[in-house]
Design goal:
- The chain has about 70 residues and is mainly alpha-helical.
- It folds into two domains: about 30 residues, no CATH class; about 35 residues, no CATH class.
- Helix content is about 70%, strand content about 0%.
- The chain has four helices and no strands.
């Protein structure tokens, strides 16, 4: 089944749905999907990413193993 057909099937199902709890769950999924992933990061994670970008922009690079070791 192609994606368009699946979407139409879901629309039809949703249009006939009367279970408020299921509708609430769908709305919660939509809300999570709409969030910017950046906003879900901690301040430390944001600072690490920004420092990494700054290092790359300045020509300072670190080996992959060194970076990934910090994350484990």
């Amino acid at each position: 089944m192609d994606i368009q057909a699946e979407k139409l099937e879901l629309i039809e199902w949703l249009a006939n749905l009367n279970d408020a709890s299921v509708i609430d769950k769908i709305k919660a999924i939509k809300s999570r999907k709409d969030l910017d992933w950046w906003e879900s990061l901690s301040e430390e994670q944001k600072q690490d990413i920004e420092a990494g970008i700054s290092d790359l922009d300045s020509g300072r690079k670190k080996p992959f193993n060194q970076v990934i070791g910090k994350l484990r």
